[in-house]
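Hey, can you fold this?
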Amino acid sequence: MGGSQAKEDARKYREGYPGLRDDPTADKNFLFYSNSLKSYPEGDLVENILKKWKGDYRHLEWNHSYIQWIFPIREHGVNFSAQPLQLHEADKIKSNPVLQDRVLRLYEMMLDFYGFELDRESKQVRRASNYAERLAHLNRSSHNYLRITRILKSLGELGMEDYKRPFLERLTEECLVHGTIANATDSLVNYWIPVLRGNAERAAMQARLRELGQTPASETEEDSDDEDPRARYGYRGVPMRHKRPKPDVPVRVSDTRDDQLGAETQSTTTSEPDAHQTEPAAEGPKAEE
């Protein structure tokens, strides 16, 4: 997704998708969160996912159909068995304490996958004990950057907007201070921070970027209108070449089987997706996982 397209995508999200109508008959997300409907394909009931999948990093990496269910947004993703979130579903989830707790537990499951943990009282995100291994994996697994975009958007839709800035503050530190996920810097600047809905919070995060020598998305030059997008994007919006800055500091690479799998994922993400690897490797047009 080019700079101007990324800005438009973030703007529509922040403004609540003007003109997008609610479908009162669509209720898959509410049923899933109510533990009444299994995610599919290759899914399960939400309580089984929470109990069985947390810490199963191999499964969370290689299963590409669950993220659209556990963090629904108002856009289609690559799993068309999942339904875009409807406003009436979001209202029901926000008003139900049991379902709100499930949102947080699913958030904690994904934070653990990335090497973080949540302090619920302060909402702060800190490093988990296995952060070095997990952040090394995240640094080279760019399709997870799409997942983080989705997580941030979904938190805002499901009543958890105030959890987004602490997560972004942690991601900023890892990208630009410690260099553990420096490859994610482009996503941080152009996709993650722009989906903060509060103007003051977004401005504060952009100020922090400037302190760290990065130009916020709001100040970057627009894409050329006459650029042929096929020069950069191929099948389903997958970038033909995708380069990210190298980490500023050495990152320990684990020799675990999970990280070997992550390396294989990273090495194949620029090829045309097959039936089992359907999401694009990095941010691109309609590339929401």
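Oh, and this one too while you're at it.
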Amino acid sequence: MVYRSEGINIALQAMDRFENNAPMQRAGCCLLYNICIGNVEIERTIVNSGGITAILKALDTFATDSTIQEAGCIALHNLCAKSADNRKLAAKEDAIQRVIRAMKECSGSASVQEAACKAIINLTAKNMPNKVLLGEQDGINVLLKTIQRYSNNAVVMEAAVTALRNVCNKCINNINIIKVQTRLGVLLAALENSLQHCAQNAAIQKAGCDIISYACVDKETADILDSSYTSYLQNLQRKHGSAEGDTKVIDAAKRAQNKIKSLRH
């Protein structure tokens, strides 16, 4: 079967031999992301055989091909889903920079934005150095632009807001970037778009509330957030207070509201 080491090696050799052939690179990335889903042993075989290097090479060669960028980002997402070692190796080979570039070069492709955001979620999961690296590589600003651009697309918004929430969680460097963005009004506009246009998506609402909490770092940012979000957070709690409501959203909204209140006094 193809997931045996020989089969994986044959696929990677084909990607190397036909490095300038777009259909081959697209097919190779698709094959890699399909066969490694949920199987740590297969993930290890792919990585040990040079799979991450092959994926990144495809992303480099076809930087503006949205189908290859999508496939490559999904492959990185799947390969880094469960393995801390794969996350470290991918970052060492500059995977984070490639993913951010994909978002910039293919900003008009919703599928690339979704795939790239999901790749960011797994690349930075439980990995503080990767979170810091993403912030240093302009990843926070890129995520904010995606949130603003795709405010009506719940699928992209969930991936982007979740990625932004995760990379700021317990990361002082990225929280400081968010703080600056708050003062520029960028964060407010981005979150308002995503939360208002995707009001039925509890995952987006919770992640948005968490980001508000992370952004609220001093009285100045608390004052800015209070003027725009206190009433919204209250309405969000009322909306989810019914039997059909989501208690996680309520808890996140309360945390955000209480943090704003405590820093303003």
